[in-house]
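Model: Ready when you are.
Researcher: Fold this.
Model:
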Amino acid sequence: MHIRSFVLAASTCAAVVILAATGSAQGPASSMMMDAPGKAIAVLIPTKGSAVTGTITFTKIEKGTRVQADLSGVPVGKHGFHVHEYGDASSPDGKAAGSHFDPKMAKKHGDPSKADVRHLGDLGNIEASADGKATYDSTYPDLPIDVIVGHGLVVHEKADDFGQPVGNAGGRLAVGVIGVAKAN
C-alpha cells in the first residue's frame, strides 16, 4: 500500500509542477504552446494480490507510436492491456482507472491488428513466459501520445478475446498512469 501512496503523491506533485510550468487557463502562460511529447511512460504497480510490475513506453516514430513493454511477475499466458479513461491508480483493484479509453466514441471493442473501428485504448495482448516475464513491441499508427498522456494503463488477468463490450479480459493485475517521459 505504501507504493500506491507514493505513486499517487508523485502523480499529484507532477501535475502541480506541470500546471505551475505551463500556467493555468487564466494565467499569463496560457498563450504558450508546448510541443506534443515525443515519449511517454506508464510505471505499473500491482493491484491487491498481484505481483505484476514494469513499464510500458510510448515513443513517437515516423509510422505512429511505438509501444514497448517490459513486465515481471506476470502469470504465464496472454493478458489484455489497454489505455483506460482515468489516470487514477488509487483503488486496490485498479477499477479507479475506469473503462477503456474511447475519445472517438467508437463504442466498439476491437483487435488493434484489424482495420475495424475500435476503442483507441485497445492495445491487444501481451504474453508472459513461465518465468513471469513479458515483453512487447508494436507500432500503432492511430495512437497519438499527446492524447493518452494522463490516462491509465491496465494489464488484465486474462487474454483479450476482442469480444464485446470490453474483451472479457477479466480483473486488473496492474495499473499505471501514462506520463510524459524524457525523450533521451
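Researcher: Now this one.
Model:
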Amino acid sequence: MIEPQSITEAVPFSDVVARVSDLEAIVASSLGQAPPTQAPVTGASFATTLSAATAQGTPGSSASALVSAAQSQVGQAEQPPGSNDGPAVATYRTAVQGAEEGQPWCADFVSWAAAQAGKPLGDAGQGLGSVSEITSWAQRTGRYLPAGTAPQPGDLILFGTEHVGLVESVNPDGSLTTIEGNYENAVTRVHRMPGEATGYVRV
C-alpha cells in the first residue's frame, strides 16, 4: 500500500514514476486486466512529453479563441464611416507592424484576432496588413487551402487579393457565417456561400 506523504516533502522523480506504476497495477488488477507494460520514463522524456502536450493545447482551442476574439468585435465601426479609422480600427492596427492610418483594415482585423488567440500572423508574428501578404505567407508555410476545401471555424477566408474575413461557422446547408472587418465600414457578421471564397488559411 502506498503511504500518504506530506506535499511539503520533496519526492524523487523516480519515486513518483514508481507510485504511478503501482497505481496502474492496482487499477488493472481490480478490473481483471493485466498490468500495463511500458518503457521506463526518464525525467528528460517526461519533461519533453509535458512540454509538447502543453504546446499543443486542446485540439481546436486556438481556432475557438480566434473565433471568440472576432465575435467580441462584431458591431465595431469606423468613426467617421468611410474613414478607415476610429478607436477600434486603431486597435486592430496595433497587431500589424508598420500599419498606417486610413488604409483598408480587413487584414489588420484578422491579424488582431489571430494575435489575441496566441497565433499571430507572419513569420515573426508581426501581423500582415494586406490580403496578398496573408496569401503569400500561408502558401509558403503550408497553411493555404485552395477554393473548394471544406473550411473549419477559425479559418481565414480569402476573397481574391482585396478582402479577408474569418469563418465563424459552417452551416448545415453548407453555407458559411463569417466575421469580416471593413465590411460596410464595420466588423460585420456575413452570410456567405463557399463558392465566393478563393481560398482559406488555417492559422
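Researcher: Key takeaway?
Model: Residues 13-30 form the longest helix (18 residues).
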